[in-house]
């Protein structure tokens, strides 16, 4: 897709991690990049706030949703259902709300790109909340690609990526976790935010890609 001085891209969750890498990459192109997240005061669980954000923004071209939620781990019989529902409210329903409101303002030729995760198609005990909400998002994106056509809708599905999400871990433990993961992955390394950002640029740039899930996970799904 052609970027001009009037192109406007919106990165939800663009203040850190993968979202910040996407925003940085887009900022190197012509046009303007708008960044919004909980850190900037946008609560994806607040439908009125999301609607007001896009009304104030006006027409734009590309929506990239990288905002996530802290999904509780645990088995079905042990899970905190309220915490699980809260995770869905942000990651799944927040993404759907963004698509609903943004779809009213995105200009012809525009795109929406969501973020899921490789657990959407990988069965790991104790992670069913992440699996369920990411799988639901991937399935819904395919429906939206039909409903919103010719607007293009895609999903980027990252694997383990070195971001601030793991800042709460002790440095040595964090490094050891990434080293163990790298040793098991066909790619031989953990992901960097810039690796994943390239997937969003591909979804935006290729006019023949819609309804697709773009896996960038170092080969985790073929292990």
Automatic annotation (TrEMBL):
An example of a Pfam family matching this protein is adh_short_C2
Give the domain of life: Bacteria
**UniProt KW keywords:** Oxidoreductase, Plasmid
Q: What InterPro entries does the record point to?
A: NAD(P)-bd_dom_sf (IPR036291), SDR_DHRS6-like (IPR051122), SDR_fam (IPR002347)
State the family it belongs to. Answer: Belongs to the short-chain dehydrogenases/reductases (SDR) family.
Question: Can you name this protein?
Answer: SDR family oxidoreductase
Report the source organism.
Ensifer adhaerens (Sinorhizobium morelense)
């Amino acid at each position: 897709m052609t970027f001009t001085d009037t192109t406007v891209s919106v990165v939800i969750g663009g203040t850190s991690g993968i979202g910040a890498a996407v925003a940085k990459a887009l900022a190197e192109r012509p046009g303007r990049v708008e960044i919004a997240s909980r850190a900037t005061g946008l609560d994806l669980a607040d439908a009125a706030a999301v609607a007001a954000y896009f009304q104030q923004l006006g027409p734009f071209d590309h929506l990239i949703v990288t905002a996530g939620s802290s999904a509780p781990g645990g088995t079905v019989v042990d899970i905190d259902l309220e915490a699980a529902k809260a995770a869905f409210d942000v990651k799944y329903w927040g993404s759907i709300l963004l698509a609903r409101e943004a779809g009213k303002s995105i200009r012809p030729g525009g795109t929406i790109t969501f973020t899921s995760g490789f657990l959407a198609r990988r069965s790991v005990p104790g992670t069913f909340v992440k699996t369920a909400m990411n799988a639901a998002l991937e399935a819904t994106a395919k429906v939206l690609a039909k409903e919103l056509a010719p607007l293009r809708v895609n999903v980027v599905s990252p694997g383990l990526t070195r971001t601030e999400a793991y800042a709460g871990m002790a440095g040595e433990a964090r490094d050891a976790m990434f080293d163990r993961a790298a040793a098991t992955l066909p790619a031989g390394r953990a992901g960097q935010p810039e690796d994943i950002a390239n997937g969003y640029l591909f979804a935006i740039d290729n006019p023949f890609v819609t309804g697709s899930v773009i896996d960038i996970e170092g080969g985790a799904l073929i292990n």
